[in-house]
Amino acid sequence: MSLMQRISTFLRSPKGQQLVDRGRRELAKPGTQQKLRGLAARLSNRRR
């Protein structure tokens, strides 16, 4: 079984679904979004 197949199987499992739901809740928080925007800005500046 390839790595992608194993990841897909995990994400369809109940434990995988719980993890996906938790990630969605975290991403919905304004503070998390601000941190990610700051990280993206730093990474884009580093590439130049």
Write the layout of secondary structure elements.
Elements: H1 3-12, H2 14-27, H3 30-47
Region (Disordered): 1-48
Biased composition (Polar residues): 1-11
Essential attributes:
88% helix; 48 residues; flat; mainly alpha; 0% strand
Report what the structure shows:
The structure is a single chain. It contains three helices and no strands. The protein has 48 residues and is mainly α. It is flat, with a radius of gyration of 15 Å.
Q: What does the largest sheet look like?
A: none
Number of strands: 0
Terminal Cα span: 39 Å
What's the helix-strand series? HHH
Strand content: under 5%
Short structural summary:
The chain has helices at residues 3-12, 14-27, 30-47. The protein is mostly helical and 48 residues long. The radius of gyration is 15 Å and the shape is flat.
